[in-house]
Design goal:
The protein has about 55 residues and is mainly α. The chain is about 70% helix and about 0% strand.
Length: about 55
């Protein structure tokens, strides 16, 4: 019984580590995206219209 509980505890610990790592990566990605959006907003990128390409006839 002790061996079984030890194995179960090891498996649960590994799953917990994977979940924690995934959550940290998700938070980091969300924060990076929010920072990029703030910089784009305050630098005025949203006010400039996109440049149009000239077409040849």
């Amino acid at each position: 019984m002790s061996i079984w509980l030890s194995s179960a505890n090891k498996a649960i610990g590994a799953a917990r580590g994977q979940a924690t790592g995934a959550a940290k990566r998700q938070i980091a990605a969300t924060q990076a995206d929010a920072m990029k959006q703030m910089v784009d907003f305050w630098s005025g990128k949203t006010t400039r219209p996109p440049a149009r390409k000239r077409t040849r006839r």
